[in-house]
Amino acid sequence: MGDIKMKNYMEDCVADIMPSVLAEMNVCRCERCRMDIMAYVLNKLPPKYVVTRKGHLYTKLAAIASQFDVDIITAITQAATIVSSRPRHDEE
Ligand SMILES: [Zn+2]
Predict the structure, then answer these.
(1) Residue 23 falls inside a structural domain
(2) What is the whole-number distance in angstroms between the Cα of residue 36 and the centre of ligand 1?
(3) b or e along 61-75 (b: 16 or more beta carbons within 10 Å of the residue's beta carbon)?
(4) Measured in angstroms, how far is the CA atom of residue 61 from the centroid of ligand 1?
(5) 48-73 residue pLDDT tens
(6) How far is the CA of 76 from the centre of ligand 1 (A)?
(7) Among 50, 39, 51, which residue's Cα sits nearest to residue 79?
(8) What is the value of pTM for the model shown?
(9) Residue 42 Cα, ligand 1 centroid: separation in angstroms?
(10) Residue 92 belongs to a domain
(11) Span from the CA of 38 to the centroid of ligand 1 (angstroms)
């Protein structure tokens, strides 16, 4: 039973797609800004919790991810625009 776990696969989908979306945009790619963008996107998109076996995770994700690509890309674009207009990497 140890290899069964629950996770939000939306998180993996976003992490997967984000670098290629940001590569097309003129935004800061420091860790703080990427985290802010990621958090914004994940708050905006509905979570997709799945129960999965470890070894099956990535094949399954790849198939599911394509259905969400458009929504995810839109959300990342919006988030990157918002974060880069008010970057928080100089705070603290
Ligand atoms: Zn930054």
Answers:
(1) yes
(2) 9
(3) beeebeebeeebbeb
(4) 29
(5) 888 877 666 555 555 555 666 888 99
(6) 15
(7) 39
(8) 0.79
(9) 18
(10) no
(11) 13
The rounded Å distance from CA 6 to ligand 1 centre is 31
Give 69 Cα–ligand 1 centroid separation in angstroms: 25
Tell me the CA–centroid distance for residue 80 and ligand 1, in Å: 11
How many domains does the chain contain in total? 1
Q: Quick check: 5 and 51 in contact, CB under 8 A?
A: yes
In which residue ranges of the chain is pLDDT below 50? none
- For 74, the 3-state DSSP assignment is helix
> Which domain range does residue 36 map to?
4-85
Question: What SS3 state is found at 13?
Answer: helix
CA–centroid distance, residue 52 to ligand 1 (Å)? 34
Q: Centre a 10 Å sphere on the Cβ of residue 13 and count the other Cβ atoms it contains.
A: 23
Whole-number pLDDT of residue 9 = 83
